[in-house]
Amino acid sequence: MVFRVTFVCTGNICRSPMAEHILRRRLEDAGLDVEVDSSGTQGWHIGKPADHRTIAALRRAGYTSAHSARQFRALWFGRYDLIIALDGGHLRDLRSMAPSEADREKVRLLREFDPDADSPDVADPYYGGRADFEKCRDHIEAAAPGLVAEIKTRLTS
C-alpha cells in the first residue's frame, strides 16, 4: 500500500504546490516511495499552473514546478495518510470537512514539523514580492526534515 501525503492551502497556486515539490524531492533523496500532491480549500484557480513567483522560487532552488491547481474534496480523506495544512485557517476548514475523528487526526500543520518555527502558519506570499516567496520556501524547507522523519516513522511502524 502506497503512503500518500497532500498539502492544502487556499488557492493551490502558491504555498501548497511549493510544499509538494519540496517534499517530493526530499522523499526521493531519502529513498522513500511516497505519493505527494496538493490542492486548495477554494476552487478559484482550478486547472491553472502555480503562480509564476512560486515557479521562480522553486526553480531558483533547483526544484521541479509542474502543477495544475485543484480543490480539496471531503471524499478524498480516505485517499491520504497525511493531510498537511499550511495555516490555521486551512487546518480548521479541513478538520470541519473531515467525515470522522480518524480523518480529523490526519490533518496537521506543516510548521509543527519545524522545531524552530516562530509561528504555526506558513504566511501567504500571494500579495507580496520575491522576498515573500523566498521566505515561504524557507519555511517549507525548514519543516521538510521533520515531515520526512514522521513519514519514515509511519512507514516502519
Which percent range fits the helix content?
A: 40-55%
Write down the overall mean pLDDT: 97
**In percent terms, what proportion of residues is strand?**
5-15%
What is the CATH topology classification name?
Answer: Rossmann fold
Structural domain tally:
1
CATH-defined superfamily: Response regulator
The helix-strand sequence is: EHEHEHHEH
Number of helices: 5
Which architecture name does CATH use? Answer: 3-Layer(aba) Sandwich
- The CATH class designation is Alpha Beta
Radius of gyration: 14 Å
What's the β-strand tally? 4
How does the major sheet shape up?
A: 4 strands, parallel
Backbone structural class: alpha/beta
Tell me, briefly, the overall form: globular
Measure the end-to-end span. 14 Å
Low-confidence stretches: none
Q: Order the strands across the largest sheet as they lie in space.
A: 2-1-3-4
EC number: 3.1.3.48
Pfam families: LMWPc
Active site: 9, 15, 124
Keywords: Hydrolase, Protein phosphatase
